UniProtKB/TrEMBL annotation:
Keyword Transit peptide: yes
UniProt record, GO biological process: plant organ development; RNA modification
Name of the protein in question: Pentatricopeptide repeat-containing protein
GO molecular function, one term: RNA binding
PROSITE patterns membership: PPR (PS51375)
Extent of the PPR repeats: 5-35, 175-205, 206-240
Keywords: Repeat, Transit peptide
Length: 289
């Protein structure tokens, strides 16, 4: 190319980041800075590469460049910064970016909730969500799905029920990802029957839905139901994943069924082409121990 300008450079930086060629994207970004000034789209794309490669230091350096260039109030750049900090488990930095945003959109709000749900502590996720609701923020299905992902065994069940009531009020019951979150929330809070009710009422189910209900039964030690659901999942056309097998193995471990567990482990690669991870082997060791 005879002439390279900010548009062509940004297209390359963005293209590499979206193709998950993160190192090449960041290398192009560094080369670009020697030739032309970056714009907000360039910074957003380079932050996507940092988030994808978990390059915390690179993200912090780009944050400095963003401030220097005057793009720190650009919503797409701010979302990119929060994504980097969240994925690199730097939640205090992510929260500072969030607090500085003057007009956050639904994507921006979902990023911060998802970051806290994934990295914890769960109390901050709940506090932030309640704060949003109290401030009159328009809550969408993605935000609800994110906050449901923060629930654990010691989470406040009353809050989970309140969120379910909000879901009904907002007519989100038909959203597959929200229902998946409800199944997990109820099972982790010890309410298996509620998980079953949500699963049974879903208009459509995906692999995560099946994984969620299998995990729920496994968590509660109902191994026969785990295997029944595993077969139903395949009949329904959903492909088992490594997460599915982890739940099945947890169920075998729960009742000490080492023989069945070993059969399941061997079938992963021989029948489904899935290579066991450390977590799968840990379940088998627990069974045999």
């Amino acid at each position: 190319m005879v002439e390279r300008n900010v548009i062509t450079w940004t297209a390359m930086v963005s293209g590499m980041a979206r193709a998950e060629r993160y190192k090449e994207s960041l290398s192009l970004f560094r080369q670009m800075r020697l030739a032309v000034d970056a714009n907000s789209a360039t910074y957003s794309s380079s932050l996507l590469a940092c988030a994808g490669s978990l390059a915390a230091r690179g993200g912090q350096q780009i944050h400095g460049l963003v401030v220097k260039a005057g793009f720190e109030t650009d919503l797409h750049v701010e979302s990119g910064l929060m994504d980097v900090y969240s994925k690199c488990e730097l939640m205090e930095d992510a929260l500072r970016v969030f607090r500085s945003c003057q007009d956050p959109d639904e994507v921006f709000l979902t990023v911060i909730l998802g970051g806290y749900a994934q990295n914890g502590p769960e109390e901050k996720t709940f506090k932030l969500f309640v704060e949003m609701v109290g401030a009159g923020v328009v809550i969408d299905a993605n935000m609800v799905s994110s906050v449901l992902g923060a629930f654990g065994a010691s989470s406040p069940f009353a809050l989970g029920k309140q969120i379910h009531a909000l879901i009904i009020k907002k007519c989100f019951e038909g959203n597959t990802y929200v229902c998946n979150g409800l199944i997990n929330m109820y099972s982790k809070c010890g309410e298996l029957q509620e998980s079953i009710k949500v699963f049974g009422g879903m208009p459509s189910k995906n692999t995560i839905s099946w994984n969620s209900i299998i995990a729920a039964f496994s968590r509660h030690g109902h191994v026969s139901e785990v295997f029944r659901l595993f077969e139903s999942m395949k009949v329904d056309g959903a492909e088992p994943t490594d997460v599915t097998f982890l739940s099945v193995l947890h169920g075998c471990s729960h009742v000490g069924s080492a023989k069945k567990g070993l059969e399941v482990l061997n079938s992963m690669s021989s029948q489904y082409g899935i290579h066991p991870r450390v977590e799968h082997y840990a379940c088998v060791v627990d069974m045999l121990g």
